[in-house]
Amino acid sequence: METDRPDGRTPNQLRPLACSCSILHRAHGSASWAQGETKVLAAVYGPKAGTKKNENPEKASIEVIWKPKTGQIGKLEKEYEMILKRTLESICIRTIYPNTTTSVIVQVVHDDGALLPCAINAACTALVDAGIPLKHLAVAICCSVTDSGCIILDPTKEEEEKMKAYINLVFPNTIVSVLPERSSQVGSEPMAHGIMTSVTQGAMSVDDYLHCLDRGRAASARLSEFVRKNIGPKSTWLGRMGFLCR
Amino acid sequence: MEEEKEAVMVTPGEVLGRTSDVKAGRGAYAALHNNTVYASLTGFRHTVPPAPDSSDLRPTVEVTGHKAHGPVPQPGSVVIARVTKVMARSASADIMCVGPKSVREKFTGIIRQQDVRATEIDKVDMHLSFHPGDIVRALVLSLGDARAYFLSTAKNELGVVSAESIAGATMVPVSWTEMQCPLTGQIEQRKVAKAAS
């Protein structure tokens, strides 16, 4: 089921991606991530000494501060902070430096839809840039369901407002092996079919949800490829890519 | 076993080997649920052969060439700290270096009275051991409480390595418990670190 989109993209096509690292000199790690007109800047400071009152001092803690483009932080931003915190805690190896706090500051530069996935991708890239040990990378994607039941990826703000529901999905990066046999499996276990975070807005059927998962997973494989190609032991990098996920 | 000639770029989560074949070094971690070693940093895969006298014959796989975050004090690491406050039963210090690397963030340490020296620990006078501004070499004992790490100077090679006299000159150690001002000749009490020979 095809649908026309205002910007001429197909339902499975992502907006052009742009990413650059180490753009803030005072931060220990930083990254800017843009998906079309949506752009987010993330900065990482730490590990710093001590944890907050309600945190477990036997593990490192992650602190997320969300800075909206304009105005005060509201309920939605608080929710985004919490989602981002939980997502980042699940990818960081928190037992290495107990009783420390790593601060992640997310600054929204422009919001043109799929803001949370963009922020998650930026924060994850900034953590890599800061040299924080991670279990794996996280790649986030937004899928939305139209009134006619068509699923589209990476909606713009205009599209989001017309959708009956949309879902923000975070997947672990598709794990590759650098072993000589280049096996995609370890033992008999498939490598990465997990889902780390799923945040739904609006109502959708179970079938729609499962279709979104499939589409999201396909897109996340391409995003993983983009991230892997572009992040490296360099001080700065810039990548641009537009995707059509089959 | 020779080191790898070709550097392979890896990102966090990439498989570096099986725990039966390799050990996880810096920038890598072992997942116990599937006995696999994964990368935890972005950099180049690097295999270090085992030491000739080692009983474990597995090579160590590391990820090198990455941008490292600032060093973090850990139990057992030797730190350089500046004393900020001296009280009757403890002294506070700001950790400046962990091993050879300077810290990016402020870490606070506490030297308790019982951790100043190894002998006669109940007779230690904190004010005769440290003064604010002294640079000390200390060992991290533990994470301590939420506010500070517990530090110890209870070894010959640990203690004050640099101190200023009242006259403002850098003092010279004359014994394990005394330092002398080169300008005035005045002797001040300190828990002096034994100079490396």
Automatic annotation (TrEMBL), chain A:
The keyword Transcription does not apply. One of its GO terms (cellular component) is nuclear exosome (RNase complex). Its main location: nucleus. Residues 13-133 form the Exoribonuclease phosphorolytic domain. Pfam families: RNase_PH (PF01138). The keyword Zinc does not apply. One of its GO terms (biological process) is nuclear mRNA surveillance. InterPro entries: ExoRNase_PH_dom1, ExoRNase_PH_dom2_sf, PNPase/RNase_PH_dom_sf, Ribosomal_Su5_D2-typ_SF, RNase_PH. Keywords: Exonuclease, Exosome, Hydrolase, Nuclease, Nucleus, RNA-binding, rRNA processing. It is found in: Nucleus, Nucleolus. It comes from the Eukaryota. GO terms for molecular function: exonuclease activity; RNA binding. Belongs to the RNase PH family. This is Exosome complex exonuclease RRP46 homolog.
UniProtKB/TrEMBL annotation, chain B:
Residues 102-143 form the Exosome complex component CSL4 C-terminal domain. Residues 9-48 form the Exosome complex component N-terminal domain. Gene3D superfamilies: 2.40.50.100, Nucleic acid-binding proteins. The keyword Secreted does not apply. GO terms for biological process: RNA processing. One of its GO terms (molecular function) is RNA binding. It is found in: Nucleus, Nucleolus. This is Exosome complex component CSL4.
